[in-house]
């Protein structure tokens, strides 16, 4: 299953909640304000295992809009996201 998180992990608990409910083989997409998690050291440590397993995606446009680069995870374009959703089915939005 693909989980999507859009809220900043500095202001909301949605990323922590999504990580708690993820099962083996699930994937996570960070987009909108959630992309700042890849630049926050505390969140980098929590996301590292998921990134190493190939299960972490980050919206490239949202990174660019915030002046960030993907320290973790695989950057996705909107077209790549559409293809991923077609492959995995409807995502669980947090």
Automatic annotation (TrEMBL):
**What organism is listed for this UniProt entry?**
Zobellella denitrificans
| InterPro entries, per the entry | DsrEFH-like, Sulphur_relay_TusB/DsrH
The root-end lineage is: Bacteria, Pseudomonadati, Pseudomonadota, Gammaproteobacteria, Aeromonadales
A cellular component term (GO) from this record?
Answer: sulfurtransferase complex
Signal sequence bounds: none
Name any Gene Ontology BP term: tRNA wobble position uridine thiolation
Query: What is this protein called in UniProt?
Result: Sulfur relay protein TusB
Q: Which residues cross the membrane?
A: none
